[in-house]
Design a protein that fits this description.
The protein has 1308 residues and is of the alpha+beta class. It is built from 37 helices and 51 strands. Keywords: Coiled coil, Cytoplasm, Elongation factor, Nucleus, Protein biosynthesis, tRNA processing.
Length: 1308
């Protein structure tokens, strides 16, 4: 569905320069000079051309490839020859040579410098005495095939070393000769009574091949794109009596014959192998039996062959071929376009053909200027859509691009050029696959107004559909334009899809040459009038762009014929620009070759620059008056369109993306597009594209058009077929537009058709929907549609309160309208709420049974369809209405043997006990307990058992609060808490229940001795019992190392000073112990208890100090060893070269590199078992990860954490030492000496630990990293490789004062 349209043209006219001494007779023959060959110099960006002249021989010309340089070719050099017939001109980049091959057999080279200048004269590197009939270079310029005058095939290298030489004509088929083993042949089959006599071939004369008088008899050579094979077309004689016919022979790149095709009647010498390699193209004139003057049928076509020589289809050229001759074929480098050079008496044309869906389209027809002949055609080897043509005096370069001609969004019309026909399809109403179409508009060939002759080109190079109205315009390169009103039908019906009428046609001014683009735009002035504009882009004689604008103002509708009211011409000072499609006539813009965008001022006939693209964009579209500077949104786009508020584009990643225009405008105005695809400074456009909605499409899909009115996007696959999809973003735009307009039914049907969640109707504008519920119900009306809507809303992700409000509002409106009609919808509204209100639905059935009993059965069946029957049965049972229960059970087809005995048993019970049984059956224990509490006092014990069984203590307290049964409930609650070891809570409940005995037990278990002894004193327990309790509590506190509290209990309630001093001394609380001894005048306890316990405490602290010092020294030594190993043997440290890990499957469920995986284990492993690991196993492995097992990479980190814990332990020991030292100083001389020693030991420990910390956590100076997204991602990726010092923070030593100066003096 794409058209091949011209994007640039360059014409270089030859101006021969003759020597001043040239004779008059020689100068009179200057017109005989003609350009006959041209070639591209890809490395230098040049075109070289060779001209033939009877006087000067062969002359070489040079011109740049740049389409914007229209200068005349520069003469580079010449080569004198008796027979200046050029066969080949080629630039070989590897040797920097221009190589010319002539018919007389000479091979001439010129050496080139980096600018394309000749640095040497012509050098004849070889000559063939018999002459050369044909020559062809391989695509990579490494091999050269020559066919000499004595019909020998020579294969040479680029340095002209002969690799092979053999006769061209041979009887051998080739290496790929087929082998027939006779399977399936008629001779091997049974033929009954008739026998096999009929299988004998009857003698008949072979088919006579008529020789083509127009065949020049010369062989042709063509290479495949990869240079692996080449094909030769030559004349051979089938029999001595018959004429010569063409035969194709395929050779390898070593000149070994592969296959030979059969002689094909009418086959012509033209030959071109498709670069992709699947087809060999040639031409054929169809002939028929009869006299020689009647054999030609006029059918002239292109035929294709496979590499094995078998025919493979083809196509016929358009028109009568009896007065024309196909001179040359050439494939574009991407194999998409076939150029056919047709020689005619009144002027040559070059046709460009493309294929799609097994149909060949004639896309372009290039006519030769000045009614002469083309002398050569070539495609650029790298720029696939660049064509090089030469005529006798001109070098013509044409650049093409692909373009989809799509029209107004309301019709979705697309136009495709196919010769003199324009194929039109309105995709809003019809989706017709190509090559078919809804309408074929036959374009009559226009005539030249000055001469009355037909234009040479019969195919319009460009067509344009209006983006706002149903108009079509076509322009011809000779300067003619036509415009049609298509009159497309957009309503359903059996009439024709469209009825085009020609409304305007004219010839353009003669100053406008090379017309290559037309744009038609229009806008409505009012309901009866319209303004139309047609802009034509061409060039003047110097190649500068020129725009001719025809305006048709205030045209009366409907359109029948037009007369231009104004003609404007805008001359531009640059070449090969392009008009940007637009909707409104006043928004005409022109894009320069460098990407600059210019606004065309129609009234002033001038232009001014408004912005610039980063590069020239052949496909562009102007959405409105806003244009933005130098921004790129994506780099892999192959097609795009603008529709429904989105920039829709397909990518080479095989997806279609929908970029909201608002988002795009925000990115563009911020200037943060994706200017650099590899840098990190501009990622806004890329990040935004990740948030845009995407949809996967078939590989290679391209956008044909978008039809917003039908919410469809038409895509074309690479093979040519079409696919229409309804993307969610386009559907949502139409749905939202309908919702804003209050078209509830249309929006609902669109959501239903395209499977959009109906909750969007509520979410889009909740307030507007809630206010328009009556209108919504009135438009939808259908009960099934309302049920579908309510069900979808109930299952959506909307908040529960929103769902409830919507359901209640819709239900209320339906009840007000007609209860009997909308009973199913009302039931649906009850059921789909969250939580569902099944009871209200059943109540509605009871109410309906009294109003309209005939509807109850259907309503019950419907609600059973919505809700599980067993659940509905339980709901009805929970309403204590047995008639409703029976009605549900009967319609649910439940077995009466299952529920009737149960219902009879319930009917026999008292009311509240019956309710209790029902609630207990339905597993509603709280409600059951309340019903049981109402059943009477005789059921109280059962209620206590029930609440204890179901742990309904809070509900029971609320039920019996303020009654005489409250204390009993508290007792059960307290006992339950006591059993759960919640002693503090249990004690509080027992106190509330006035159960002092159990309260004291609970306090004792909770070690809350203050509350315990308060309660003991309130209950007036005797002294012995209190003392017994005190000793029990003191022992428990002592075992919990709560020494001070244990001593307090012993002193206050057991009156045992000795045991109190014992507890305090064990807890290093010597200050309190000495105070109590002095208070109670017990000095004997100093020597008896304090002295020995102080020495024991000092010994314990000394042991701790020695243990910490030993641990520190071992860990520092091991850490030093590990760090030396990490520096000297990093592979061994990280286990990178472990031979047992070579078979480890690193494709595990953890996204880490293989090296990161192996560094966590030294155990041998052959296979990965990650897929079999449970979550428990994985957690166990994670715990092992930092266990610090010796020999693993985590050992260093484990040691660092151990040092941190050692610092914390040292701080604790420091506090104990600080408490003990004053008493060691004061108790005795022996104690004082122990204190001095303890202070020295601990001081040494602190010094050693502080030095170790400084040495361990010493870090080299590193530059401050730049905070960026890339840096953070790198840090995340290398998280497992981070040094342990960076994961374990350096600990801080305590700086508090702990030592005694007196002991320091003693030490001194």
């Amino acid at each position: 569905m794409r058209n091949l349209v011209p994007s640039a043209i360059k014409v270089s006219t030859l101006k021969p320069t003759y020597n001043e001494q040239t004779s008059d007779s020689a100068s009179s023959n200057c017109g005989q000079e003609s350009i006959v060959a041209a070639t591209f110099d890809v490395d230098r960006g040049l075109i070289f051309a060779a001209s033939e002249d009877a006087q000067f021989g062969v002359r070489i010309w040079r011109t740049p490839v740049d389409p914007c340089e229209w200068n005349a070719p520069i003469l580079c050099g010449s080569f004198s020859s008796i027979d200046p017939k050029v066969l080949s001109l080629r630039v070989v980049g590897e040797s920097a040579q221009l190589i010319l091959v002539t018919r007389s057999g000479d091979t001439v080279t010129w050496q080139l410098d980096e600018f394309g200048e000749f640095i040497s004269g012509p050098d004849i590197v070889g000559s063939v005495d018999s002459g050369i009939l044909s020559v062809e270079w391989s695509p990579d310029d490494t091999l050269l095939v020559m066919i000499t005058g004595d019909e020998n095939l020579i294969l040479m290298t680029s340095t002209f070393d002969v690799l092979s030489e053999a006769p061209l004509h041979t009887e051998d088929f080739g290496e790929d000769a087929p082998i027939n083993v006779g399977w399936g042949a008629k001779e091997t089959q049974f033929h009954g009574s008739i026998g096999r006599a009929h299988l004998k071939p009857s003698p008949q004369s072979p088919t006579q091949i008529q020789e083509d008088p127009n065949d020049d008899g010369l062989p042709r050579v063509s290479w495949r794109g990869d240079g692996a094979y080449f094909v030769v077309s030559s004349l051979v004689r089938q029999t001595p009596q018959s004429g010569k016919g063409r035969v194709l022979r395929v050779y390898s790149n070593e000149a070994r014959l592969q296959s030979t095709a059969e002689i094909v009647a009418g086959l012509e010498p033209n030959l071109s192998w498709r670069p992709s390699g699947n087809l060999i193209a040639s031409t054929q004139k169809e002939t028929r039996a009869g006299p020689s003057d009647t054999q030609q049928t006029g059918k002239h076509g292109v035929v294709f062959f496979e590499r094995n020589g078998l025919p493979h289809g083809g196509f016929n050229l358009r028109g009568d071929g009896r007065d024309s001759r196909i001179k040359h074929l050439a494939w574009s480098s991407d194999s998409n376009v076939l150029a056919v050079h047709i020689e005619r008496a009144h002027g040559d044309v070059v046709q460009l053909w493309t294929t799609g869906n097994y149909h060949w389209y004639l896309k372009q027809e290039i006519s030769v200027p000045l009614s002469t002949h083309f002398t050569s055609i070539n495609w650029h080897p790298e720029v696939s859509m660049r064509l090089l043509l030469t005529s006798s005096l001109q070098i013509i370069q044409q650049d093409y691009t692909w373009e989809t001609c799509a029209g107004a969004n309301d019709t979705g019309c697309v136009g495709v050029i196919d010769g003199q026909k324009i194929l039109l399809t309105p995709f809003r109403t019809q989706n017709i696959p190509p090559p078919m179409s809804s309408h074929q508009l036959l374009v009559n060939t226009p005539t030249d107004a000055s001469s009355g002759d037909l234009f040479l080109s019969q195919v319009p190079p460009h067509i344009s559909l209006s983006q706002s109205h149903d108009l079509l315009a076509a322009v011809w390169q000779e300067g003619h334009i036509m415009m049609w009103a298509l009159q497309t039908r957009i309503t359903p019906g059996g009439e024709a899809a469209m009825n085009p009428i020609l409304i305007w046609s004219t010839n353009l001014p003669w100053e406008l040459c090379h017309c290559r683009q037309v744009l038609v735009s229009s806008k409505n002035d009012d309901n009866d009038h319209r303004t139309i504009s047609a802009a034509i882009l061409g060039s003047d004689v110097n190649g500068n762009d020129r725009i001719v604008i025809h305006d048709f103002e205030h045209v009366i509708l409907p359109l029948t014929s037009l007369e231009a009211t104004r003609l404007r011409t805008i001359s531009l000072q640059q070449k090969n620009g392009r008009l940007i499609p637009h909707e409104v006539p006043r928004h005409l813009a022109w894009q320069a070759p460098d990407g600059s965008i210019f606004e065309v001022h129609r009234e002033e006939e001038s232009y001014s620059q408004i912005c610039s693209f980063t590069e020239y964009c052949p496909s562009s579209q102007r959405v409105d008056a806003r244009l933005f500077n130098r921004t790129s949104l994506a780099s892999n786009v192959n097609s795009f369109t603008v529709a429904s508020g989105f920039v829709i584009f397909t990518t080479t990643s095989h997806d279609v993306q929908f970029a909201p225009l608002e988002s795009v405008v925000a990115i563009l105005t911020s200037g943060q597009g994706m200017l650099s695809l590899t840098g990190d400074e501009n990622k806004t456009g890329e990040l935004a594209s990740q948030a845009w909605q995407k949809r996967r499409v078939e590989r290679g899909s391209r956008i044909v058009t978008a039809v917003p009115s039908t919410m469809s996007l038409v895509l074309q696959m690479p093979r040519g077929n079409l696919e229409t999809i309804n993307p969610r973003p386009m559907v949502m735009e139409v749905v939202k537009s309908d919702l804003d307009a209050g078209l509830w039914r249309k929006a609902f049907l669109a959501c239903r058709k395209h499977r959009i969640d109906f909750s969007i109707i509520v979410e889009h504008n909740q307030e507007a929907f809630m206010a328009s519920i009556p209108a919504f119900v009135e438009q939808i009306e259908d009960v099934d549609y309302l049920n579908l809507f309510l069900t979808s809303v109930g299952r959506s992700q909307l908040p529960a309160d929103v769902v409830a409000n919507v359901c209640d509002s819709v239900r209320q409106d339906l009840e007000d309208r007609n209860l009997t009609k909308y009973v199913n919808s009302i039931l649906t509204a009850y059921v789909v709420k969250s939580p569902p209100d099944h009871e209200a639905g059943l109540v509605l059935l009871l109410r309906l049974r009294g109003v309209n009993p005939s509807l109850v059965d259907e309503a019950v069946k419907y609600i059973i369809f919505l809700v599980d029957a067993d659940r509905l049965f339980d709901t009805a049972l929970g309403m204590y209405d047995f008639s409703l229960v029976l009605m549900v059970a009967q319609h649910a087809q439940k077995d009466p043997r299952e529920y009737l005995p149960f219902l009879r048993e319930l009917r026999a019970l008292p009311q509240y006990y019956q309710h209790f049984k029902i609630d207990d059956h339905l597993k509603r224990p709280a409600k059951a307990l309340r019903s049981l509490s109402l059943a009477g006092p005789e059921y109280f014990q059962e209620a206590l058992d029930y609440l204890d069984t179901h742990q309904l203590h809070d509900e029971a307290l609320a039920i019996w609060q303020g009654t005489d049964k409250y204390m009993d409930v508290l007792g059960i609650y307290g006992a339950w808490l006591f059993d759960r070891h919640e002693y503090h809570q249990a004690a509080t409940v027992f106190v509330e229940a006035s159960d002092a005995r159990r309260a004291m037990i609970s306090y004792e278990r909770a070690l809350q001795w203050q509350e315990l002894f308060e309660l003991c004193l309130k209950e007036q327990l005797d002294g012995d019992e209190i003392m017994e309790i005190a000793y029990r509590i003191a022992d428990e506190l002592f075992s919990k190392k709560r020494f001070s509290e244990s001593a307090r209990v012993l002193l206050d309630y057991a009156k045992d000073v000795r045991q109190a001093i014992h507890s305090l001394a064990q807890g290093n609380e010597f200050a309190e112990a000495r105070r109590i001894i002095t208070l109670h005048a017990k000095p004997e306890l100093i020597e008896e208890l304090v002295f020995p316990y102080a020495l024991d405490c000092r010994a314990q602290i000394g042991d701790d100090i020695n243990e910490m010092r030993e641990q520190l020294r071992k860990q520092v030594a091991r850490l030093t060893e590990l760090r030396i190993k990490k520096v000297e043997e990093p592979d061994a440290f990280y286990n990178l070269d472990d031979p047992t890990l070579h078979n480890v499957d690193v494709m595990t469920d953890v996204s880490i590199a293989p090296t990161t995986f192996t560094r966590y284990t030294v155990a041998p492993s052959a296979t990965s078992k990650a897929s079999k690991r449970s979550s428990k196993t994985k957690r166990k492995m994670e715990r092992k990860l930092g266990s610090g097992r010796k020999g693993t990479v985590d050992e260093e980190e484990y040691i660092l954490k151990s040092v941190m814990k050692l610092v914390e332990r040292c701080a604790t020991t420091q506090g104990e030492t600080r408490k003990l030292l004053p008493h060691l100083l004061q108790l005795s001389q022996a104690h004082r000496e122990e204190g001095v020693a303890l202070q020295v030991e601990f001081d040494y420990l602190q010094s050693e630990l502080r030095a170790a910390i400084e040495d361990i956590w010493k870090k080299p100076d590193e530059p401050t990293p730049v905070d960026s997204w890339a840096t953070r991602m790198q840090e995340k990726a290398k998280e497992q490789l981070v040094e342990p010092l960076q994961r374990v923070p350096k600990p801080e030593m305590s700086k508090s004062e702990w030592s005694l100066k007196l002991l320091q003096q003693k030490l001194a």
